[in-house]
Amino acid sequence: MFDNPFSMVVAIVLIVSIAGIMRAKYGIRRDRHGNELPIRDPDADRLRDELKALKERVAVLERIATENNRGVTLDREIEALRHRD
Q1: Is residue 68 a contact partner of residue 60, using CB atoms and an 8 Å limit?
Q2: Residue pLDDT, tens place only, 46-69
């Protein structure tokens, strides 16, 4: 199959092209030195920030639910959550 140089060149180009497509599909890019770096996804960053905010809210709600002095503290915490966004 690879008995002439032209077919070997075509095979090498094909392999390199397929590898480039696979890297692009899986979100891997290379820097100047050939090191592989993951591509940053803005949606993933937004979702991480949203998840962090939700975890903070859950922590506040857990603290509110377990406190003994619920009356005044509950009102303050709810107002703080409303004004946070």
Answers
A1: no
A2: 899 999 999 999 988 888 777 666
Structure tokens at 25: 């599909």
E strand or H helix at 4, and its extent? none
3 state DSSP class of 12: helix
Q: How much is the pTM? A: 0.41
CB burial string 31-60: b at 16+ within 10 A, e below:
eeeeeeeeeeeeeeeeeeeeeeeeeeeeee
Residue with the two structure tokens 């002439």: 4
Question: Hey, CA dihedral for 75, 78, 84, 85, is it positive or negative?
Answer: negative
3-state secondary structure 13-71: HHHHHHHHHHHHHCCEEECCCCCEEECCCHHHHHHHHHHHHHHHHHHHHHHHHHCCCHH
